[in-house]
Design goal:
5 strands; globular; alpha+beta; D27-like_C; D27-like; Beta-carotene isomerase D27-like C-terminal domain-containing protein
C-alpha cells in the first residue's frame, strides 16, 4: 500500500525517522513500534532505459530490509492498526498483511475501503508538509520536479513494502518523457496478499487519489497480475475507472477464494471471473 499501501510513505525515509505527535515518548523509536516491526525471517513500456537504480538486493535479487526499513514497517503498521482498530499477533510483514486483510473486509464497500486507506496515507505525513508540497513544489515546471522527486523518494524508501525497485522514464500524454517512473520488479504486497482486491482497493486506487488530492501530483499505477511487477507513473493521470484495465482483471491464480470457487465449479463464464472484491 504501492501502498500498497502507497505507501507510499515515500518521503519518510528521506526525512529520517518520523516524529509522531501522538507518541508520548520523546525518543525514537517507541518500544511498541519495535515490537510491531519484528521481522521474520501492464507495465508502462518506455523507450528509455532505467536511469537510476535504488535497490539493495540480496540473494536472487531479493531486497533485504535494513533496521530503518523495520522502523518504517512498524510505523506504517501502527497507522493501519489505528484505522482498523485491530492488530495481528503475527510479527513483521506477515502481521501487516493480516491487518491489510482486516482493513479490506472491514469496509462495507470498495469505496469505503479506499477512503480508509487514504486516511492511513494521510496519517503518515505531517499535514503541513502535504500542504506545502502541493502549494510550492507541485506547480514548478508543470509538475515535473515534484513528480521526479516522488519517484526517487518512492524507490529509495518504499522497498521494505514492495521489494526491489528502480527509477525509470515514462511517457506523458503530451509525448514528453520524464524520469518520474518507478518499476517494482515483483511487488511483495501483491504477492503476499494473494488478492487482486487488496491490491486495487488498499493500494492502487487510494495511492493514486492520495498523491493527486494531497500532494498535487498525478499518478497512474499499472500492476501486472501475471508476474506481480508494477509500474508507477508519476505525472501521468490515471484513466477513468471504467477503462482502467487493472479493474477488469480476473482473480489471481494464487487467490485461495478464487481457487475454491473454481473447485466448486463456479465462475464458468468470463463475466464471472472478476474479483468480487473490486
Amino acid at each position: 500500500m504501492a501502498t500498497p499501501l502507497a505507501t507510499r510513505s515515500c518521503l519518510l525515509a528521506s526525512r529520517g525517522p518520523p516524529s509522531h505527535s501522538a507518541a508520548s515518548s520523546s525518543s525514537w523509536p517507541p518500544s511498541s513500534l519495535l515490537q510491531l516491526g519484528r521481522r521474520p525471517s501492464r507495465r508502462l513500456h518506455s523507450s528509455s532505459p532505467q536511469v537510476d537504480a535504488a535497490a539493495a538486493p540480496g540473494k536472487s535479487g531479493e531486497y533485504r530490509p535494513s533496521f530503518a526499513d523495520d522502523l518504517l514497517l512498524a510505523f506504517f503498521r501502527s497507522k493501519m492498526v489505528e484505522e482498523v482498530g485491530w492488530d495481528s499477533e503475527k510479527p513483521g510483514y506477515a502481521g501487516l498483511m493480516e491487518v491489510a486483510n482486516r482493513l479490506m473486509v472491514k469496509g462495507k464497500s470498495a469505496l469505503e475501503t479506499e477512503q480508509a486507506a487514504i486516511r492511513v496515507l494521510q496519517s503518515l505525513f505531517p499535514p503541513l508538509l502535504l500542504v506545502l508540497y502541493k502549494a510550492l513544489l507541485a506547480p514548478i515546471g508543470n509538475g515535473q520536479l515534484a513528480a521526479m522527486m516522488l519517484a526517487r523518494a518512492t524507490a529509495l524508501s518504499c522497498q521494505w513494502l514492495m521489494g526491489t525497485c528502480s527509477v525509470n522514464s515514462v511517457t506523458l500524454p503530451d509525448g514528453k518523457s520524464w524520469s518520474s517512473g518507478v518499476f517494482v520488479e515483483k511487488c511483495k504486497y501483491l504477492e503476499e496478499s494473494k488478492c487482486l482486491g487488496i491490491c486495487i482497493n488498499t493500494c492502487k486506487l487510494p495511492t493514486q487519489t492520495f498523491f493527486k488530492d494531497h500532494m498535487g501530483v498525478d499518478l497512474y499505477m499499472e500492476p501486472n497480475f501475471e508476474d506481480y511487477s508494477c509500474q508507477f507513473n508519476f505525472g501521468v493521470p490515471p484513466p477513468p475507472l471504467d477503462t482502467d484495465k487493472a479493474l477488469k482483471e480476473p482473480c489471481l491464480d494464487i487467490c485461495t477464494n478464487a481457487r475454491r470457487r473454481r473447485e466448486l465449479g463456479r465462475n464458468s463464464s468470463p463475466d464471472e471471473l472478476g474479483c468480487p472484491q473490486v
